[in-house]
Structure formats: C-alpha cells, structure tokens
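Protocol step 6 of 9: fold each sequence in the batch and record its structure tokens directly after the sequence line. For illustration, a two-sequence batch is reproduced in full.

Sequence one:
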Amino acid sequence: MRTYRRLVLASVAALGVTLAAPRVVAQIVVFDPNNYSQNVLTAARELQQINNQIVSLQNQAQSLVNQARNLASLPYSSLQQVQQSITRTQQLLNQAQRIAYDVQQVDRAFSTTYAPASPSQSSQALITGAQERWQSSVAALQDSLRVQAGVVGNLDTYRTQSAALVSSSQSASGALQAMQAGNQLLSLQAQQLADLTAVAASQNRAQSLEGAQRAAAQDQGREQLRRFLAPGQGYQPTAVRMFHQ
C-alpha cells in the first residue's frame, strides 16, 4: 500500500514539473533575396540623391563666391592723377597771351590790329600796329612751347598710371575689376588725345597768327609804298650844320 502511494506521489510531482516548465517554440528565419535587393537599390538611390544635393549646394556656394568677386570694385584708381593732368593742360591753354582761344577776341583783333591798312591812318599808327602784330606772334609761339612742355611733363604720369592699370587689370579678381581697369585705361588714352589736341591747337594758333602778321605786313607795305609814290611836296633841301662853332 505504501509502495503504491509513493508511486502516485512521484507521478503527480513529475506531472507538476512538466506543467510548470515553459513551452519552447522553434523559430525559423527565412531570407528573401528579392526583398533584400529592393532595399539595397532603394538605399543606393537615396544616397545618390543626397550626393546630388551636396554637389548642388557646392555649386551654389561657388556661384556666390564668383558673384562676389565679379562685384568687387577695383582697389586702384588713376582718376585723381588724370584730372590733375587735365587741369595743368587746361591752365596752360587759359594762359594764352594777347589773343586767346576766344571767338570774340579773334574777331576784334582782325577788325582792328590785323585789319587792312587805311589811307587815313598815320605812319605812327601803322608802325604801332606792326609792333602789336609782331608781339602777338611771339606770344603765340611762347604759348605753344609752354603747352608742349606741359604735355611732355604729363608723359611720366601717363606712363606710371598706364603700367599700374595694366597690372591691376591682369590681377583682377572679377569682371567688374577688369572692366573698371579697362575704363580707366580708356580714360587715360582720351586724356593723351586731349593733350595732343591742345598741342596741335597751340601750334596752329601760332602759325595762324604768324600768317596773319605776314599778310598784314604785306598790306601795310603796299600802303606805305603808295604813300611814298604819291605826288606831293618833293624833297626840300635844308641847311645842315656839321660842326659846332
């Protein structure tokens, strides 16, 4: 009887241990190659899009840098030196003596000093007019030489500024700097042409006054010859005392 009881208790205990133990479920992992390849392709596309966005941002940044360079002003300017050269040449032209570069003065001079000799003029008036014309010619020649000397003095300034502008143009960091350097070079060339015009004007003025003097002298010579040949009181001898007594 005891033996039977022991068997029953042992059976019950074994059953309890069995019921109390956790259930173990077997899991099997299944690998799907199609799904894996799709995921890889999707990740690759997303990575390519990110790379494209990075490249686009880099290009935009470089474009902004280039725009900043193109908008940068030229740090060098020859405007002051060119204006000083213009002022010097203009001052020399304004200092023209006697007959200046003025239409009214020219008309007034050719209606008086350079006018044809009149029979009513006295001999002294003719002589005075000839002296005034000669003085005007000499003054015009002096003015021409002074203008030429001033223009030659500007050559050093032009050479220095031209070299500086060419160097600035070659080292320009953007389009605006290169354009500004080119504009200043054109301005420098325009001033050189203005100096040449001033020299030509002063030379032509001197030549014109010299030609006008010769024409007036010829006309005055004809008038003096006419007076000399005109009939009138002839030569009257007069007594001359050679020695003091």
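Sequence two, same batch, same settings:
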Amino acid sequence: MSISISPSDRVFVLTGAGISAESGLPTFRASDGLWAGYKVEEICTPEALRRNPALVWDFYSRRRADCARAAPNPAHIALAQLEAQLPGRFFLCTQNVDDLHERAGSHHLVHMHGELAKSRCEHECGRLPVEDHAVYASLDQVPHCACGGRMRPHIVFFGEIPFEMRRIEREISESTLMLVVGTSGSVYPAANFVHWARQAGARTVYIGPEPPLNASAFTHIVEGKAGQVLPGLFTLA
C-alpha cells in the first residue's frame, strides 16, 4: 500500500508506545495493569509523588537509563524524513516521553504526556522545565528549584491535563491527513484525535501490528511493524 500526499495536504502524525517498543523500550502497559512491575498508582499519579517521591524518581530514573541505551528505529527516521519533505505542512504529536523522535531528526513536534529528559518544580511556581538527563541513585540527589520545591519528572501523571492541547486541536482541525502509529486507541484524549480529524474531513490512516480499539474511525488500516511499514509508505505528488 502507498499513501499519497498531495501538495495541498497537511499531515498530522500521532505516535504511541508501539513505535518506541521497536527500539527496545517497554510499553509499561501490561494485561495485569502493571508498568514494569509497578502499579500505576504507585508511580504515575500526583498522590504517588506526594506519598513516595523516592519511588517515583527511582522509576523514572530507570526509564531515563533505558532511553539512553535505545536508538531511533527506521520508523522514527521515516517520519523525520517526511517532515523534511513537507515544510510547514507536517506536525507530530507523540504520547511518548522519550526523545527518539528528536534524535531521529524531528523538529516540529510536541510531547503531550511530557518529556523524560526534563524536570520541573513540584510547585506551580511558574519556572520553565529544565533539561535533565540525570539518573538519580537516591532522592537526596534530586535537585531543588530556586523557590525551594523539589524537582519532579516533567511527566503528565494520571489525573493531570496533557500538554499543548489547544495547539494539538488546532493542528488537527487544519489537517487533511492523519497518521496514527503504534498506539492502542485506549488512552484518552489521544484516542479521540482520529474522531476529531474525521469530523474535519481528513483521511485517517493507522499503522501498527494489529488494529487499535478505535479502528472503525480510520479510513485505512495498515498492519505491520512501523519500522518495516513506514519507510517507503508515502508517495509525494
């Protein structure tokens, strides 16, 4: 199958954990409800951060170490190359918190669930997130903000609002082609994006090893690993 992209098309791409799984990063979602052996409420909620910040930081430090060992795969590279071919007409929204898209060469993107390599103040003091690739061996090593608050992972926890939602909604409304790659269609609000795109009249294409839960909303389903399918999938008119 080939996806044709015309000179007037505006492309919106949504990626999920499946694309990074092909680089060896676990999805952290399992049938038993655990993320890498942890219960979600233990490491990915505001309450968890208040109750046991040491455990939360241990979990995300381990994820940073995993990410540092991973490398972009052909799917990340194919999307970066597509962006380069569509200046001003390409937007990437990822649910992933790793930096594999950036390392592959993507520039015009947002991380709606946060970024693993950044930290921010645990208080809403207004200071911007800072780059932080450190792997902390203990909570004592985690730095503090100038306001005195301890830094926290720049991650959207369950119960918190995803980042850049207004910008995402605007980009979807202006798109004519939505590509969804490696996401199960079970996490909201991202699972609704394809419905919003269809309402705006866009073509919608899913790429992944199996159909997502919201498969009925797509005009095309392309089954297969993204790293094998995405390279060579697009034809630019």
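Proceed to step 7 once all outputs are recorded. Observation for sequence two: The domain at 1-24+71-113+161-237 is CATH 3.40.50.1220 (Rossmann fold).
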